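Name: Nucleobase:cation symporter-2, NCS2 family
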Amino acid sequence: MARGFPSLTGVSFAFLPAFQAVGAQFGFSVLLGAELVGGVVAILFGIFYSKVRRLVPPLVTGTVIFTIGVSLYPTAIRYMAGGAGSANFGGVSNWIVGLITFAVVFALANFGKGVLKLGSIFFGIIIGCVIAIPFGMVDGSEVLSAGWFSLPQFMPYAIEFNPAACITLGVVYIMVNVQLIGDLSAASAGSMDRMPTEHEIGGAIKTQGLVSIISSLIGGLPTSAFGQNVGIIVSTKVINKWVFGGAAFVFLAAGLCPKLSALLLMIPQPVIGGATISVFGTITLNGIRILVKDGLTPRACTVFGISVAFGIGIAQVSGSLAGPGMPEWISTIFGTSAITPCAVMAIILNSVLPPEDNTPEQRNLKPLQNGGSSGGEKDES
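Structure predicted for Nucleobase:cation symporter-2, NCS2 family:
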């Protein structure tokens, strides 16, 4: 990835529905094989991105970003209510902790100054954890029982290849790459007031594919850009490379030190929900920002409205693509996430609809030329 570009990746929920469906049908070994093939598909997509970039202009990426943000709202509310499967899901104590956390983050982000403003989410999580202690939501027993150091093992599970599983995951990887383009565009537009260059996007996609290949060989799961972090980047405007390096070091340390992992897992679900709900809203608004930069023309409204309707609609109606005669792979790919059908529909509609006359030329958020001054360096001083 280009030097100084703000992005942070990790194991993502974006793959979870498809992985659950494929893993339940074929087993974990086939899942790892499909993950490896998906990584290769991502690398090829990144290599040839300059050839296919016309399929994902700002209209498409803005639509996908909007859908990503809206799709994350139930996740935040689920966290605030206590987390799926919790014994007291929806209880008043969960909402007290979640709403107090949200209030602290909101107050610091909008009325705080300096470090308090920039670290609003961090301080909100700390205060939220303190508030959660009297409610019995913080348990340190797992920290005490966890080990200090653990290295990953090479191929701890057998890797098998199944054509159907590989094709399914290959398609999912392409759609997640479209989501990645949207995440990168939102982070760049919100923090540097420009769209990412072809080199930056292509590098990010290839990096994601390489990480997926390595992850499959050590029994891990694939990564993608964290939509939550896009909102944090946009909210704080902090894009200093040392900040991202420090965050990456925390990820690495948590993976190698089980005690640190257990410490991070102590954060109660309502605290996470209260701290992230405003972040998810920021993602949605950045999708709108990208959409309106060239004007909400009738063509743009058509692409946006229909794509979001298909994406959100299919995701909200469980089993809508799993009826008699419907191929299972259709339900696996398009029926488990709002992002995939939305992205596919946006690409198709944008390709088949004729361009409008007198469309305003793009004046803002233009990519910088490779070799020119990069906005990612402005916070390094």
